[in-house]
Request: fold
Amino acid sequence: MDSIRAFRRLLTPILARVRRVVMGSVIKIVDDSGDLQKMQVETIGRSVYDNIENFGVFGVASNPPAGLDAIIVERNGKYISIAIGDRKYRIKNLASGDTAIYDVRGQIVKLNADGITVNDAFGNTVTTTNSGINLTDKNGNNITMGESGINLNGVIITQDGTMTTPSTITAGGDITSGSGKTLDTHMHEVPGAAALVPPPAPTPTTSAPVA
Reply:
């Protein structure tokens, strides 16, 4: 028993030192104006630390809101943040090898085996795949771009410029074909019918003076 007590006495200051070196905390304030982002955090033991440097990850920048969890460690007498996260916002069920960028608004950029998917906070979606690109807005309008051309809500435009539509075409002006014919002036000849010839202009007449 004496040896166990002695071991515990020896281990207690070591554990206390480890607890001071690596601590869980909650972000209170973020200052994102300087060369290094600095935070004020509150540890699980209710201690408040100011000017905690958050180095972040190269190529990714964020301003974490108050309330997120942060792991801070001591380095040369100063505390720095090495990880920030939150269970509430974490993206779940990513496949092996997938990467996602997200924010507190629910906006997501996901890189997966099929391509890239972008979802904004308003219900608009952009998806890229091996076949092409698909854009759908919050109103249900859809544009698909692929090998066969572009599909705009059912209107097909092929790569050679041919357009097919399942609905009515309404033009604000005249429509001209490649041969120069226009819808406003073009007339079709009816087989078996006489050609439409405009009537001759009336011949002016003069009346003899009345005696």
Remarks:
- The chain has two domains: 2-85, 99-164.
- The domain at 2-85 is CATH 2.40.50 (OB fold (Dihydrolipoamide Acetyltransferase, E2P)).
